[in-house]
Amino acid sequence: MTRAFTDPGDVDLNEVGGKGFGLIEMTRSGLRVPPGFVISTAACHNYLEAGELTESLISEITSRLADVEAETSKTFGAGPIPLLLSVRSGAPVSMPGMMDTVLNLGVSRESAIALADVTGNVRFMADVVFRFHGMYAETVLDAFEVPERHELDEVLDGLPDDASAGGVYDAVWSYCAAKLTEDSDDVVPTDPYEQLIGAVEAVFRSWNTRRAVTYRDVHGIPHDLGTAVVVQSMAFGNLDSNSGSGVVFTRNPVTGELGMFGEYLEASQGEDVVAGTRTPDPVQKMSEKAPDAFAELTQTCEAMERRRQDMLDIEFTVERGELYMLQVRSAKRTARAAIRIATDMYDEGIIDAAAALGSVSLDQVRNVQRPGFDPAELAAATESGKVITRGVGASPGQVVGELYFDSESAQEAAKAGRPAILARPITSPTDLHGMIAADGIVTATGGSTSHAAVVARALGTTCIVGCAELQIDPTAGIMTVGDRTWTTGDLVSLDGATGDVIDGQITLVDGAGEGGDGLAALLDLAASANAGISVLGRAHTVDQVAEVNSRGGDGVVSAVDDVLVTAGLLDQLVADLESGKELTAAAADLESAIVKAFTPLFAAVGSSVEVDIRGLDFHADDVAELLSVANLCAMHPQVAMPMGSPELVSAQLRGLAKAAEGTGASVCFVSPRMSGAAEARALRSLRDSIGVPVRLGGYVTNTQGVLEIPAIAAELDQVWLELQRLQAATYGIPPRHLLAAEPLDSYVRDGLIDIDPRKKISEFVEKLVDDTLERLESPATLSVRLAGAVSDETVHLLRRKGIKRFAVSVDELRPARLAVAR
User: Fold this and answer.
1) How far apart are CA 189 and CA 734, in angstroms?
2) Residue percentage of the chain with pLDDT more than 90
3) Residues 709, 782: contact at Cβ < 8 Å?
């Protein structure tokens, strides 16, 4: 249940925790580490179950403590040289500031007097006693009121100049004890061994404090890991002016720039550096105050970074000019810093390409590639009550703009170069021009498949819908919530991920383009590892095609309905069909609309670039709700089937062929919701009969279609698997829920579903895919469409199965390129 820093043998991070693992590593490397031992996470589990430490563990702790006494030539709780301890938490996963620590433990009257004698510094002893009593009372006894630092000066000022060490101890201890009685019936024990057991139990208990549980929930850390406890001999940074404590990063955690970045505070303990009660110096100032220790720290940082192949966060103490290492861990860093560090370390020869690609998360790539709110400003705005309301985040992004309540005004503002937020009770096709012009869209009603949501996603525009608290009066040009009112031109900020509508302007921090902060270099590494793999981007407008090209997409995927919606041409077709127009006549209109909408799109794509276009799908959730096609499907039921209306399919084939003429684009028409070889043969026969130079494919979204993929692939040029819709069908979940936070976040958190289908492929779907790939001549003939945020787990699973062709949204191109490369 315990392990000394010096014990030989393999070290299990999950047993000794991150802090213990680092201390053992540094000890083995020959660095100056105060001796100590680790109480394992297994002991934590036992304590949390039983509510107390076992006698065998207490005996083991006592034995380990005797070893530390022997190694340091100090005595716990007594003189001539007293041993004082730090007792710190150390979970397997870093949870900074979330769990408990007790420093200076082992204070008794005898040890305090001995400490004053051996150091020749009575005030230092008083400081140690004062610190210990307050920290123990707060951490172990849950006291709310503990003495503040200035009160120690008041106690000492009231003593005679010739007060003995014992007298000083008595005065400080009595003062702190009296302060504690005002808040608690508990007392801080004077027996050092009792102090140690109490501190160990407190650290174990801190694993389940509200703040620790919340932190784990937010960061996805398992609750069953438990924490280890590190018991270590104290090094005193508060001993004199030649002592101090500090925290240093081996590189700048904000920018990623090479060089030590951190702080040093002379005559202090580690808690002082982070408490903010005194202002520390930049760590470089340490070279003036403790030059030898600074030189050793510099050398140690460089060596440890190369050994660990990572940017590090290091805590240290200087005691009378000697450097002691107290902690090393992988450093938290901004997304921009993470990318720069990965590419710089690769260039410096510290890590290889695989490690560089693996050291950056997909979320970090997402973070740097687009503008976002300044985190500090956003937090301040939230805390100060500036969030007007929270709706449904329908299309992500963070934008700031002026409020406009009709599409014409929004369009005019955009033409004048002013950022516009279009606020409507609900949108309709007549608002399309304003929606295209707006930087963001807000509606009082509607859900994730409402008109505003669907069009905004197609446009890539930030959108929040279903803001039930909002009263929007377009005629009066006002928006109200309770007794608060906003008028035309007022600034608001939208967070399309959280659904927050915020009063006023939150500063936008520019995202990094391809050349920013090493992102281009990182993606070049990814491209080198991606030989034979294609990642296509979804685009419905000329601007989005340009984005696909600029973000390194290997081609474009789109859909007839999405392109026609963004061009404002689909609603008229549906209206004509609902009014009784014959399919033949409607087909001619459809062909013309496709030529008009797709010609500029294909021209933007460029020569020899692959473009896969999904056919018109009236069954798709977004189209069905957007255009209310229930009446259409009742009047023309055949349009609900992939090959039910040869007239409309022919119109799409001819329209796409005409639109591609002279552009050089390599166009593939992909039939939606294909279920078998008969449909594939019918599509090929229809294409051959009209003689258009368009390649053919099929989208598969259901289990029957998956089983038939080998037969479908034999008839067509390619087959696309719509993974999101297949997952949705497997669980009986509306596909739109796989693109939103709720209700799935709650469902997963409550354990009502075995996996998160947005991030992981179900066992059933995986077995279906495995069976299909076994029967395919080559896995490369199957392509996979990934909707929503790309998941490392899903991509890695598909790559291992031989899938080499993916399609993602334009915002996910860079994350996907990184994911498929590792």
Assistant:
1) 60
2) 69
3) yes
Domain that holds residue 301: 244-333
**For residue 679, is it within any domain?**
yes
Higher pLDDT, 409 or 95: 409
Classify strands 782-785 and 718-722 as parallel, antiparallel or unpaired. Answer: parallel
> b/e string for 372-385 if b means 16 or more Cβ within 10 A?
bbeeebbeebeeee
Same domain, 774 and 813: yes
Two tokens at 13? Answer: 């991070």
Q: What is the pTM of this model?
A: 0.80
Last residue of a domain, one of 172, 200, 233: 233
With bands split at pLDDT 50, 70 and 90, how would you rate the model's confidence at 298? very high
> Do 701 and 719 share a structural domain?
yes
Residue 452 confidence class, pLDDT cut points 50, 70, 90? confident
Same domain, 460 and 552: no
- Checking if the pLDDT of 13 tops 50, the result is yes
DSSP single-letter state for residue 507: P
Of 15-19, 176-180, 631-635, the one with minimum mean pLDDT is 631-635
**Cis ω for the linkage preceding 743 (within 30 of 0):** yes
Give the DSSP per-residue string, 457-479: HHHT-EEEE--TT-EEETTTTEE
684 and 653 housed in the same domain:
yes
Q: Is residue 238 part of a domain?
A: no
User: 78: which residues sit within 8 A by CB, 6+ positions away?
Assistant: 108, 110, 111, 114
CATH number, domain with residue 316: 3.30.470.20
Tell me, yes or no, whether 662 and 792 share the same domain. Answer: yes
Residue 81: inside a domain: yes
| Of residues 679, 686, 703, the one with CA closest to residue 651 | 686
Query: Is the pLDDT score of 746 beyond 70?
Result: yes
pLDDT band at 514 (very low <50, low <70, confident <90, very high): very low
Residue % of the chain over a pLDDT of 70: 95
CA–CA gap between residue 606 and residue 136 (Å, rounded): 70
Q: Is the pLDDT of residue 703 over 50?
A: yes
- In the numeric block, the tokens 């890991």 are attached to 225
- Domains in the chain, number: 5
Q: For residues 118 and 79, what is the distance between their CA atoms, to the nearest angstrom?
A: 9
Is the pLDDT score of 238 beyond 80? yes
Q: 573 CB contacts (<8 Å, ≥6 apart)?
A: 564, 586, 589, 590, 593
Structure tokens at 674: 């294909």
Residue 159, domain CATH:
3.30.1490.20
Segments of 683-747 assigned E as strands: 695-700, 718-722
